[in-house]
Structures are given as structure tokens and as C-alpha cells.
Amino acid sequence: MAALENHGPLWTQDQAIAFEAALEAVNDVIAGYSEQIANEQASPASDATCIAWLEMRTDQAVTVMDSLNVTDTANVQQVLSEYSAIVRARDAAASFAARHSPRSGMAQVR
User: Fold this and answer.
1) Cβ-defined contacts of 55-62 (< 8 Å, 24+)
2) Chunked mean pLDDT (size 10), the chain, 110 residues
């Protein structure tokens, strides 16, 4: 039986950090979709097409997350970039809606 040789780490610290950040971004997107699904299902006029689309996007995000490999730097960076952009856009839209909601008192301010 051959002895296992230690050739050092299989990935770098930078790769590990990027991988964890990408996983976090995908999980954040999934959480956002899940919240939207719950809100839509709770709505008296829920839209089945919207729910189906959100469920499809959730499934896609899970597939992306499951396919990530810490040593595939290019793919990890692509996922991190794409899913971070989705999170930023969602957060910006929520912030805008909160600032311009009639309940915020800012809807009439220009």
C-alpha cells in the first residue's frame, strides 16, 4: 500500500474565501426568493405564475450552489458576481420602495 504524500493544500485561502462568499450570495438569493414566494402565497390575489417562476429560480440557484467547486476559480467568481448583483438589486429596490411608500411619509417629498 502506497503512503499518502502531503502536497500541500488543495486550494488557496483566497479561493476558499471567494467560495464561501459565493455560497453566501446564492443562499441570500434563495432566501429572498423564498420570502417572495411566502408573500405571494399569503396574498389574497396570489399569482401562480409568479410563484412557479420564483420556485424555478430557486431550483436554479440550488443547482448552481451544488455545482460550485472551490478550485474552479473562474466559475466561483462568475457566481459571486452574478448572485451578488441580484442581492444588490433586490436590496436597492426594497430600499427605494421603503423610501417612496405612502407610509414612509416620503412619497410626496421631491
Assistant:
1) 57/33, 58/30, 58/33, 58/34, 61/26, 61/29, 61/30, 61/33, 62/30
2) 69 97 98 96 96 98 97 98 97 89 54
